[in-house]
Amino acid sequence: MRRLALLMLASMALYGGARMRVESLAAADHRGQGAKPAGASRYYKGNTHTHTLNSDGDSSPDDVVRWYREHGYQFLVLTDHNYLTSVDGLQALHGADEKFLVVRGEEVSDTSGGKPIHINGLNPSRLIEPQGGRSVVEVIQRNVDAIRSALGVPSVNHPNFGWAITGEELSEVRNYRLFEVYNGHPTVNNEGGGGVPSLEQMWDYLLHRGQVVYGIAVDDAHVFKQPWNTQVPRPGRGWVYVRAERLETRALLTALERGDFYASTGVELEDYSSDARTVRIKIKLEKSSKYRIQFIGRGKSPWDGGRILKEATESPASYEIRGDEGYVRAKIYESNGKVAWTQPVMVGQ
Ligand SMILES: [Zn+2]
Ligand SMILES: [Zn+2]
């Protein structure tokens, strides 16, 4: 019992420390912006969840990398199930300085009571075996910890796939920053249903409880040979734009873990900045589209999906932080269903 309490204290301390670090990094980043020469950092478009023939994908790693390179992405993480696809040869063939980067990854694919528990490890130093555990929370935590110990960045995948992971369970997990608020696979239940919350409601629940989690959008692409088939997990559905100083694995992963990115299913931003005072959004407008920008904060109760603080129909738009919002994040809606999600600024927590 005492050991458990000590462990909990240790993980709370670790978590609190990480949170402060993220906040101070975000503040430092903002302070530094004025001093940086223009173009010192830029956005790189990437997908962090992809399968090949090395697990249950339908195409070779070479074909998969080629698809992303040819479709305007700057980086790709290959994440086969319980398999670490080598990227050295791919990088030699397709990598190009500041143009394209292939990153190693693994979808550590575990189960708990028959439920699929899948945690991506981005750039781990070695293959990670599924760690198992006695509960959903323990299975997630043990895999997150194993990925960290291999110096990889963990990301919790598709919580509603197989209705496997609840918000309450995720709120008990420590030492992770990234979770999929959107996954392009057609059967992962992003929207929730039957009384189960959507992934975005789950995100607001975690933020409401003060857990700093960043929402990523991914393809989870498996099928590259049937571009006409909307019933299969195809590429080009969800991605992230990461702001980094250069196209290099460590720089990209560090930026992801401090929330310096936004997730998208088709909306691109010309500019986006957030600090303790203001969140600013400028959309890269498409000619025939119209847009809506919502600034969202802490709701009255954990499961109410957050509170709309302000809605704007013109770009650029900004929100001045008062200090009692709990957190502020933005969601941008395009008139044909495309969306972008910016990352939360934690306020007064
Ligand atoms: Zn999966
Ligand atoms: Zn997957």
Strand content: 25-35%
CATH architectural grouping of the largest domain: Alpha-Beta Barrel
H/E series, N to C? HEHEHEEHEHEHEEHEEEEEEEEE
Stretches with pLDDT under 50, minimum 5 residues = 1-38
Task: Give a structural overview.
Strands 1, 2, 3, 4, 5, 6, 7, 8, 9, 12, 13, 15, 16 and 17 form a 14-stranded mixed sheet that branches. This protein has a three-stranded antiparallel sheet with strand order 10-11-14, with no helix packed on it. The protein is 25% helix and 29% strand. The radius of gyration is 19 Å and the shape is globular. It has helices spanning 2-33, 61-70, 88-94, 136-149, 167-171, 199-208, 249-257; strands spanning 42-47, 75-81, 101-112, 115-122, 153-156, 178-183, 214-218, 239-244, 261-264, 269-274, 278-283, 291-297, 307-312, 317-320, 327-334, 339-342, 345-346. The model is unreliable at 1-38 (pLDDT under 50). With 349 residues, it is of the alpha+beta class. It has seven helices and 17 strands. The protein folds into two domains: 11-265, TIM Barrel (Alpha-Beta Barrel); 267-349, Sandwich (Immunoglobulin-like), CATH 2.60.40. The structure holds zinc ion (2 copies).
